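Hey all, quick one. A colleague (J.T.) asked me to put the protoporphyrin IX containing FE job into the tracker so the inputs and the structure tokens live in one place instead of scattered across chat threads. No bug as far as I know, just bookkeeping. Sequence used:
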Amino acid sequence: MEYINEIPRDEGFDNSISFLKEGYEFIINRRKNLQTDIFETRILGKQVVCIGGEEAAEIFYDSNKFSRQKVAPNRIIETLFGKNSVQTLDCVEHQHRKKMFLNVMTKEKIDELLDITKIEWEKALDRWSEEVEIVFYEEVKLLLCKAAFKWIGYPAHEEQAKKLVEELGVMFETPAAFGPQHWAGRNKRNRMEKNMEELVEKIRAGKVQVQEESILHQFVFSKDFEGNLLHRETVAVEIINILRPIVAISIYMCFIVMALAQFPHERVKLKKTSDYAHFFIQEIRRYYPFFPFVAAKVKAEFTWNGYTFKEGTLVLLDIYGTNHDPKLWNNPDEFQPERFASWQENRYNFIPQGGGDVEITHRCPGEQLTIEMMKITLDYLLNKMDFEIPEQDLYITMDRIPSIPKSKVFLKNVRRIRERIH
Ligand code: HEM
């Protein structure tokens, strides 16, 4: 006979304030205190079940058990995801839409983006070498924005790129914000979506020509799973779903600078062994906080480890906490890239960009691309440029999502130390 357990309960009637205060650590703090990988709490008046760890990730990414429809709150849809985006779909419709992304994540296409990005790095290095000080976060957002637009087949000139980067940046900088900041994010998304929709229309009508093999062309003429051309609003949302996260890699780029500053002995190891760069990048993705959790709703009642998940219950999977789970990682709060030399990765034990099989679940289709873009960054920072990191507040607070360093990473006296590659 199957035993039934009661899901442990968090203290207090409503924990919204603790949720906002503890941010990334809200779930893992309670998992530690209650000594459990599952607990129930109340956030913004809603009952929520929080789960974390490898086994929890495996159950969460079982698409027979969980749905993404009507899960994300409007405030997230209106800033981060966009309406009717791949993130909000289930089953056949989801897998069909997901292919749109996976089709452009081939090695060939990723290499193309890497080449484009290197050219932008070179141009940026020329510019930065003339400045006394740069704000690295702002600079690399712009660099990535230019690379992303060129990659999809619609290059933006300098002035356009400055406007576009502001619109894209605000979408991932404000999803957790309230008040004016949230509305700024919403307005920028509306504006960009409208412009993208117009572009989609013009390309479809032949008024704007883009190369047939470009990503933009592929997206503009994509069909839904019933064979109809996707609605132009949806195409606009999904194009932004490529551009926005590429620009968001800027946050990981800041973490690379921070790790080089916080752990200077790592430079020696990086210079000694070529494999070490991969371990270093993986450890950045594990150690620093980026995505706190992902959310889904129970499709139909089921039991897991004796706990009943009722239909319609909102469930949060602890992303940050799973990457800091002492059952999976020795000394999880220490920065130790070497751990990845012997790491046996499966689809559920290291989940900075989601878990499961990327073709089936909602796991991030841009994971490999992100890793490769981070490797280029590391190569530039270590081998192609000299810079100083002046005294500044590089602190990241666990209550700020996403956790952009307070100072936005000032660099001083940036100089090229290798010949220009182009
Ligand atoms: C900046 C680094 C990135 C991080 C931290 C990140 C993280 C994530 C996470 C946590 C998810 C959700 C997984 C889930 O819902 O279960 C996700 C999904 C997604 N990511 Fe990323 N991502 C990054 C970069 C990228 C890039 C570069 C792209 C595209 C070029 C991308 C496109 C997407 C899309 C389209 C989805 C939705 C997939 C789906 O619903 O099936 N991401 N990402």
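Adding what we noticed when we looked at it: The domain at 16-416 is CATH 1.10.630.10 (Cytochrome p450). The first strand starts at residue 38 and ends at 43.
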